[in-house]
Write a structure and sequence with these properties.
This protein is α+β, with helices and mostly antiparallel strands. The chain contains three helices and six strands, in the order αββββββαα.
């Protein structure tokens, strides 16, 4: 994964330690009900970073190249192990305090993406953040890539 052109740039040093516990990656196509697919990551159980043994990202598509719904496993991180957050000292109201700030991580791939409802689209509201979709475009490329 580190050598993959789209995925490798997302993997931080913290991610590398966690990914040492990765046992398998599989892709399951939704042949029975559309064009979607699931990407499944199986980790050692237990592992020192999170509770789950399996992490999944599901792309639901009724037509080719049209993502209608995206679901992901919520990762239950053990204390101090979440590589998607870092503690930073900031001033708030004249006081210095530690706050969590998002930082780049491969595991941000499992963040939820909320697709717009039909009503939102009719009203011209776009509730998807462009970065969320662009982040998952690499997953679509990877699922189609035979080098996984």
């Amino acid at each position: 994964m580190v050598n993959h052109p789209n995925i490798g740039e997302l993997i931080s040093e913290k991610d590398r330690e966690i990914l040492k516990h990765l046992k398998d990656i599989t892709v399951n196509l939704h042949e029975d009900y559309g064009f979607g697919f699931d990407i499944n990551f199986t980790f050692d159980s237990p592992n020192p970073y999170f509770i789950e043994e399996n992490l999944q990202k599901k792309f639901v598509m009724s037509r080719a190249n049209v993502i209608e719904k995206v679901e992901a496993t919520k990762i239950n991180w053990k204390d101090g192990c979440n590589p998607t957050l870092k503690k930073v000292r900031k001033k708030r109201g004249g006081k210095k305090m530690m706050v969590n700030v998002a930082c780049p991580s491969f595991f941000s791939f499992f963040d939820q993406i909320h697709m717009p409802s039909d009503d939102d689209l009719k009203q011209g509201k776009l509730v998807i953040i462009r970065e969320d979709v662009e982040k998952d475009e690499g997953a679509l490329d990877t699922a189609e890539d035979s080098s996984i």
